[in-house]
Amino acid sequence: MHTSTILALLAIPNALAAPPLSQEISIRNAELAQGLTRREYQEAAIRSLGDKSYAPYKVDCPSGWTWIRNATEGLAQGEKDFLTKRQSKTSPAVNTMASSHGIPNPPRTPTIGVALAGGGYRAMLTGLGGIMGMMNQSSEGSASGIGGWLDGVTYWAGLSGGSWATGSFMANGGTLPSDLLANLWNLDSNLIFPEDGKLSFYTSLATEVNAKSDAGFPTQITDLWGLAIASHVLPTQYQLSNTPNLTFSQLPSVVQQLGDADLPMPIIIAAEREAGELVVAENATVWEFTPYEFGSWAFGSVVKSIGAFTNMEYLGSELNNGSPNGSCYKGFDQLSYVMGTSATLFNSALLQINGTDTGLVTGLIEGFLQDLGEDQLDISRVPNSFANYNSGENPIADLEYITLVDAGETNQNIPIEPLLIPFREVDAIIAFDSSFDSTYTWPNGTALRTTFERAKILAENTGTEIRMPEVPSENGFINGGYNTRPTFFGCNDTTTPLIVYVPNYPWSGAANTSTYQLSYTDAEAQTVLYNGMRSLTLNGSIETWPTCFACALTDRSFGYTRENRTAECQSCLDTWCWAGDDNTTTPNTYDPVIGSVPPWLVSKGLTSNGSSGPTDAKGVNNTATQNTNTSSGTVRVGKMGMGLLSGMMGGLLLGSLV
Ligand SMILES: *[C@@H]1O[C@H](CO)[C@@H](O)[C@H](O)[C@H]1NC(C)=O
Ligand SMILES: *[C@@H]1O[C@H](CO)[C@@H](O)[C@H](O)[C@H]1NC(C)=O
Ligand SMILES: *[C@@H]1O[C@H](CO)[C@@H](O)[C@H](O)[C@H]1NC(C)=O
Ligand SMILES: *[C@@H]1O[C@H](CO)[C@@H](O)[C@H](O)[C@H]1NC(C)=O
Ligand SMILES: *[C@@H]1O[C@H](CO)[C@@H](O)[C@H](O)[C@H]1NC(C)=O
Ligand SMILES: *[C@@H]1O[C@H](CO)[C@@H](O)[C@H](O)[C@H]1NC(C)=O
Ligand SMILES: *[C@@H]1O[C@H](CO)[C@@H](O)[C@H](O)[C@H]1NC(C)=O
Ligand SMILES: *[C@@H]1O[C@H](CO)[C@@H](O)[C@H](O)[C@H]1NC(C)=O
Ligand SMILES: *[C@@H]1O[C@H](CO)[C@@H](O)[C@H](O)[C@H]1NC(C)=O
Ligand SMILES: *[C@@H]1O[C@H](CO)[C@@H](O)[C@H](O)[C@H]1NC(C)=O
Ligand SMILES: *[C@@H]1O[C@H](CO)[C@@H](O)[C@H](O)[C@H]1NC(C)=O
Ligand SMILES: *[C@@H]1O[C@H](CO)[C@@H](O)[C@H](O)[C@H]1NC(C)=O
């Protein structure tokens, strides 16, 4: 039977009552007579048809190699090889960008990382807007003096919505985000209620996820959710209508720009939470997915032990104490699944689906609910490659699965931790923050503060080092205006990277859309994207900013101290560094004016025209027309209202997250 026939049957509720039209239908009636329910029959029929390329598949186990690598060994060989190639690209780019601001070539090339926070489509768009500001190919980014820096970036970390940005940008070979918006993304089609092709969308979702389950792997709402995201932001050939089989480990071979190290190395993170555990930022285990490996630098929640890594390509293979003990698999590390896992907070969005088209998916979800229990809806399970590895010391040695959640659930919503790992020797981090912290969905610095608190506790209690500089409390962030404009942290502390914190600020539009807005018109998406860019470029309106940004990114590689820094760069640091103040008084509700210049910049006399109203950016055609009727502050809430969701998620800490 053709898929289309089955689809047609499913679409007509009383098709089953019609007389047999073909042999297949006779068979079906026979099965019905055997007592199968309509849904069971549908499932059986669909299971045998259609694309199943999402499912992991058995391969011969490679012999004579190491399956598990001790984290004390440092970086993966694949990562080291990548870094060598990447440095030949970043080195000339850094020199070009530095010299265009009168800065000499640094004595060594700095290792620069970017980190994109979580927050659904808002975070994806804001983060990619910031990235676009760093791209030479963007006329506005380039005119602002910031465009070109992306070529100097070595690492790119993403979390939740920031991981969708990571996956979409990488899989599309580094295409300019405004072109992705114009030519590929279909954000106007709701993530879980697509407007057209509904039936085949849901049928394909169910077929792919059932195929993974049939291959013997745990499945959960995350699989459905990840495939749905992928079908909106990955290249068309990897969407549900084709073969959704792009794995993370394959990225460098499938995407030439990544293979040639013309793009930064992607890292996507998630946090571990086993059944019944209460995990907070201080004791969560942070897991990394890279094209080379899956693993963590430190295992365990309360008691930490040295972590380990396993090969990404063979993730899902059955290992016992670091050796194959059963079958080996490839294809588990689907990019869609990794993006879904990093954003498992959104799983409950799928609980909303209901209707004739969605029966198969609803059936699957009911199964997950029974298997997992409602408090485990937001988890994603990875077969534990570290079973019996280093037993006695390894706190996860007994687990069958590693149970992952959205790392934003621990409030550590900017994925800077991978960039603070001593082995990576990162010099500067550009941290894009589009968290939903304050009443009006703007960031308040909690994400960085949480990582700072975690770093202190890890170092004191477990001896695990992450190189996090001090930052103020969230009240201190708001009172100091540090959440309105880029702020440098770690200026005096040469043992850590220097962090350039870039908060989402309403330079040109109401980019504080709800985390749960699951569809955007092109105009809305453009508003959030361009506002994200301007949060970094400062709309091209602050004359000294491009030079100061260049000073920050190269400071560590000059080994500068207050004594020998150039006067110009010292003046930049005096202006943009956190001064060390922390006014912990409870601030008034943070409610920035849409389309304004941050008051801090005005009070410092940094704006060229001294105005606090919207300024025209260099190279911008016309800020107003690019943001057609979007500065009004009206935000269209998707089909899923926030209230309903919060109710459903009950105790899951929702309001404060991502
Ligand atoms: C940006 O592009 C222009 C024109 O293609 C080129 O001259 C310039 O060197 C590029 N800058 C960087 C940093 O790559
Ligand atoms: C994806 O699946 C299709 C169809 O099975 C296959 O032809 C293709 O080689 C697969 N692509 C990758 C990257 O594995
Ligand atoms: C993590 O820390 C919190 C607070 O410190 C504690 O309540 C919780 O029990 C810890 N979780 C585990 C798994 O130990
Ligand atoms: C290893 O394989 C044996 C035999 O199939 C099985 O009994 C045992 O449970 C497996 N161990 C692990 C850790 O999977
Ligand atoms: C789904 O539909 C059924 C029947 O129409 C209804 O009883 C139920 O409340 C709906 N569920 C949701 C979450 O809308
Ligand atoms: C990892 O390496 C450290 C230091 O070399 C060593 O103490 C530890 O025993 C190793 N762990 C395993 C499981 O090999
Ligand atoms: C800052 O954000 C956190 C977490 O999102 C929230 O709990 C807190 O109330 C916020 N504080 C202020 C002063 O906005
Ligand atoms: C967006 O921000 C503006 C200004 O802070 C505020 O008036 C508006 O209510 C916010 N919208 C949302 C959805 O939080
Ligand atoms: C600045 O001084 C520090 C400390 O003496 C030194 O390590 C560094 O190399 C100097 N940098 C330059 C560019 O002179
Ligand atoms: C860094 O040093 C300068 C000069 O000594 C000082 O004014 C500033 O407060 C320090 N910053 C921090 C964060 O401690
Ligand atoms: C501290 O913050 C409060 C609340 O925003 C403000 O009223 C007060 O002026 C601030 N204090 C100083 C010394 O800046
Ligand atoms: C201005 O807009 C035109 C047409 O939309 C476009 O071709 C041109 O590249 C834009 N210029 C800049 C500087 O963005």
From TrEMBL:
Q: EC number(s) of the enzyme?
A: 3.1.1.5
Q: Which UniProt keywords apply?
A: Glycoprotein, Hydrolase, Lipid degradation, Lipid metabolism, Signal
Organism in which the protein naturally occurs: Kwoniella dejecticola CBS 10117
Record's SUPFAM superfamilies? FabD/lysophospholipase-like
Reactions catalysed, as given in the entry: a 1-acyl-sn-glycero-3-phosphocholine + H2O = sn-glycerol 3-phosphocholine + a fatty acid + H(+)
- Protein name as catalogued: Lysophospholipase
Q: Name the PANTHER family for this protein.
A: CYTOSOLIC PHOSPHOLIPASE A2, LYSOPHOSPHOLIPASE 1-RELATED
- Molecular function as annotated in GO: phosphatidylcholine lysophospholipase activity; phospholipase A2 activity
Any single GO CC term annotated in Swiss-Prot or TrEMBL for this entry: cytosol
